[in-house]
Amino acid sequence: MQKLELLYEGKAKKVYTTDDENVYIVDYKDDATAFDGKKKGQIVGKGVINNRMSNLLFQYLEKTYGIPTHYVKELSDRETAVKKVSIVPLEVIVRNIAAGSFSKRFGVAEGTQLKVPTLEYCLKDDNLGDPMINDSHIIALGLASKEDLDTIADITYKVNKGLKEFFEKIGIELVDFKIEFGRLPSGEIILADEISPDTCRLWDINTHEKLDKDRFRRDLGGVEEAYNEVFKRIGLGK
Ligand code: UDP
């Protein structure tokens, strides 16, 4: 498969068209940003880790839970062929434990176990600072239908169950995560984007040490070490 034309360059990935009109190639970068792009940096080796980890998790979710994803084929350490979709412009966030913006918004200490997982949506729009948005807003704005949202919620809770189980086995607590969905030309909604330490909060089960992008966001140091530790525990890194 050949990269043809750079279609889009995001903060952490580039997307190319290919000689197959139904397939794009995603190329993962080491660039890291936080706070709507106001904080910029690099996490050496992150592109490789996020690419290979996302692919492993997408395949696991497909096989074990029958979750449809955009994954097609890993082409190299940083490049993957994915199904061409149009991205539903929502960040779909699940929380098992309070942290980050949830803790701030509701005045709940980070680390508080939630009685049930929560589901929330943010509108993907950097200029607006990705504001939180509810189901009725999403439907009213025509971003997704009621049926689409039902599908998204259903898949999202399955993803949470699958990922929680996966990470618990390797001594990691899945605190929260963000996923994105895409629509195939047929209209089918499938899981897209990535699942990585950039998009999940991952804490060591015993020490509660942060093994994710919060180390970068909050200048905690040991950023590369944390990404490498996760990579090692999932059986891909050394
Ligand atoms: N998240 C993400 N991209 C975003 C915003 C959030 O991947 O643009 C992830 C983040 O890594 C965390 C979860 O979504 O795992 C919840 O993030 P939160 O709303 O607490 O926002 P933050 O504190 O990161 O601003």
Can you count the helices? Answer: 6
Q: Secondary-structure element order, as H and E?
A: EEEEEHEEEEHEEHHEEEHH
What is the domain tally?
2
Strand content: 25-35%
Number of strands: 14
CATH architectural designation of the largest domain: 2-Layer Sandwich
CATH fold category name of the largest domain: D-amino Acid Aminotransferase, Chain A, domain 1
Name of the CATH class of the largest domain: Alpha Beta
Q: What would the principal axes of the Cα set say about the shape?
A: globular
The CATH fourth-level homologous superfamily of the largest domain? ATP-grasp fold, B domain
Secondary structure class reads alpha+beta
The percentage helix is 25-40%
> Between the first and last Cα atoms, what is the distance in angstroms?
29 Å
Indicate the radius of gyration in whole angstroms.
17 Å
Average pLDDT score:
97
Which sheet architecture does the biggest sheet show? 7 strands, antiparallel
Description:
This protein has about 240 residues and is an alpha+beta fold. It has two domains: about 5-85, Phosphorylase Kinase, domain 1 (2-Layer Sandwich); about 85-220, 2-Layer Sandwich (D-amino Acid Aminotransferase, Chain A, domain 1), CATH 3.30.470. The protein is about 30% helix and about 35% strand. It contains six helices and 14 strands. Strands 8, 9, 10, 11, 12, 13 and 14 form a seven-stranded antiparallel beta sheet that branches. A hairpin with a 4-residue loop joins β2 (about 15-20) and β3 (about 25-30). α1 packs across α4. It is globular. The two termini are about 30 Å apart. The model has no long low-confidence stretch (mean pLDDT about 95). The protein binds uridine-5'-diphosphate (UDP). The site of uridine-5'-diphosphate has 14 residues, from β9, α2, β12 and β14.
